């Protein structure tokens, strides 16, 4: 075992981002638990994002409300949001790291609670003076045009870009796993990865050996082990073409087992490509994302693969580890595979694993698909022929599922619904799904103040 050290996490943030605001309320507690040092680093990332379809935009507002609610926070959006924050970031760079946290909290409160104008230089200086913030420069308006301070912000932003930070908040672990390299995690919903990495560094280890129940690092609002108190149905909307659906699928049995016998999973296959066309999204949304987000995607997928494998191995001694491999033939044509699943639901395991574990191009030919099914213990040719013959009206069933997905406002996969309730998008929101199954009351979608009552 290596000698333990004081780990360091660099918190990349902006005042404009409500997600960074949420992270700012959590990162200090994580640092205390892991005996880590925080470097508060303001950056001015301006990510280029593809336009969101209406359904996705509406969901992003609900997702933010839900995140605030779960963290017992509220925000009031500034009428001119987003207000320019460059001068606020420059003031932070003129402040020693020992006092940046204090100033950052004051600025977040001013902007997200009081709706103050954080672009007003006199207002910013007044906050710093009221807090007795030390500075190596005079606390007057010259601080905002000081070339040295402006260069600090530029350099911090360029470094974030060099690390492929897609957005704020992002977190950089220095000398990750003693590799001599810095490692970036993006999003307040990845803070459990950050805490695990810091705990590894604090213990001087590079693995999760000796970590008990790492699922406890993944935040919940309901005590783990709480069973569902009534009959509930968990709808799982998916397409074999979605890598994130594969990761979500690997957790469904654990979710059902931990939620108890009163929970039933209803599988809802649909054609993701048709949905994208209906709502005006590119067939491959990844290609419309920024270059930094495209580079972060596969890293994030592997992080979740590693995490879920450890969670599964700790909860089930018979767990067989799964792996993830990006499909060389992408996007995957899955219409026949989805119809096969509707005829024989037990094929789901071999079809998902062929697509995203073994990199078998199931959509390229009937022969390839049949071989996958045969090796999975099924009669592949017979199942494929049954889809052609429209046995059990399988073609209409898949079409109707896809139409229902459009009607209900889906915009991606996987999507979860508990008892036909609000949509929950993404396998990274499984903790929310588990809480709902355990009886947690979701945020009121009409609550515009977003104040949590946990």
Automatic annotation (TrEMBL):
Location of the DSBA-like thioredoxin domain: 8-198, 233-437
Originating organism: Ambispora leptoticha
Annotated GO CC locations: mitochondrion; peroxisome
InterPro entries: DSBA-like_thioredoxin_dom, GST_Kappa/NadH, Thioredoxin-like_sf
Domain of life of the organism encoding this protein: Eukaryota
PANTHER family per UniProt: C2H2-TYPE DOMAIN-CONTAINING PROTEIN (PTHR42943:SF4), GLUTATHIONE S-TRANSFERASE KAPPA (PTHR42943)
Protein name: 9257_t:CDS:1
GO biological process, any: glutathione metabolic process
Pfam families: DSBA
Example GO molecular function: glutathione transferase activity
Gene3D superfamilies referenced in this protein's UniProt entry, alphabetically: Glutaredoxin
């Amino acid at each position: 075992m290596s000698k333990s050290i004081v780990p360091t996490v660099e918190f990349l943030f902006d005042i404009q981002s409500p997600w960074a605001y949420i992270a700012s309320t959590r990162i200090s507690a994580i640092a205390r638990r892991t005996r880590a040092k925080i470097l508060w680093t303001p950056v001015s990332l301006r990510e280029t994002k593809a336009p969101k379809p209406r359904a996705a935009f509406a969901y992003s507002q609900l997702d933010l409300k839900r995140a605030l609610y779960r963290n017992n926070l509220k925000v009031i959006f500034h009428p001119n949001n987003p207000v320019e924050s460059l001068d606020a970031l420059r003031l932070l760079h003129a402040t020693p790291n020992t006092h940046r946290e204090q100033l950052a909290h004051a600025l977040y409160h001013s902007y997200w609670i009081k709706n103050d104008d954080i672009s007003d230089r006199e207002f910013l200086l007044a906050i710093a003076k009221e807090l007795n913030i030390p500075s190596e420069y005079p606390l007057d308006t010259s601080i905002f045009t000081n070339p040295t301070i402006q260069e600090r912000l530029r350099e911090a932003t360029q470094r974030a870009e060099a690390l492929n930070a897609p957005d704020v908040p992002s977190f950089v672990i220095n000398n990750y796993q003693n590799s001599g390299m810095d490692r970036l995690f993006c999003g307040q919903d990845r803070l459990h990865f950050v805490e695990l990495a810091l705990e590894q560094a604090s213990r001087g280890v590079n693995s999760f050996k000796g970590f008990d129940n790492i699922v406890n690092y993944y935040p919940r609002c309901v005590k783990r082990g709480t069973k569902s108190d009534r009959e509930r149905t968990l709808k799982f909307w998916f397409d074999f073409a979605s890598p994130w659906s594969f990761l979500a699928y690997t957790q469904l049995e654990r979710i059902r087992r931990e939620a108890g016998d009163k929970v039933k999973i209803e599988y809802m296959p649909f054609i993701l490509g048709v949905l994208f066309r209906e709502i005006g999204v590119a067939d491959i949304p990844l290609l419309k994302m920024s270059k930094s987000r495209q580079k972060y995607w596969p890293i994030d997928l592997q992080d979740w693969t590693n995490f879920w494998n450890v969670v599964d191995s700790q909860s089930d001694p018979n767990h067989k580890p799964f792996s993830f491999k990006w499909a060389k033939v992408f996007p995957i044509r899955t219409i026949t595979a989805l119809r096969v699943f509707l005829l024989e639901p037990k094929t789901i395991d071999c079809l998902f694993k062929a697509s995203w574990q073994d990199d078998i191009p199931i959509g390229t030919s009937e022969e390839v698909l049949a071989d996958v099914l045969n090796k999975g213990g099924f009669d592949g040719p017979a199942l494929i022929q049954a889809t052609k013959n429209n046995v059990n009206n399988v073609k209409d069933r898949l079409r109707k599922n896809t139409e229902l997905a459009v009607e209900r406002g889906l915009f991606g996969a996987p999507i979860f619904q508990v008892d036909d309730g609000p949509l929950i998008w993404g396998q990274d929101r499984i903790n929310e799904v588990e809480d709902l199954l355990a009886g947690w009351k979701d945020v009121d979608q009409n609550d515009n103040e977003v104040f949590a009552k946990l």
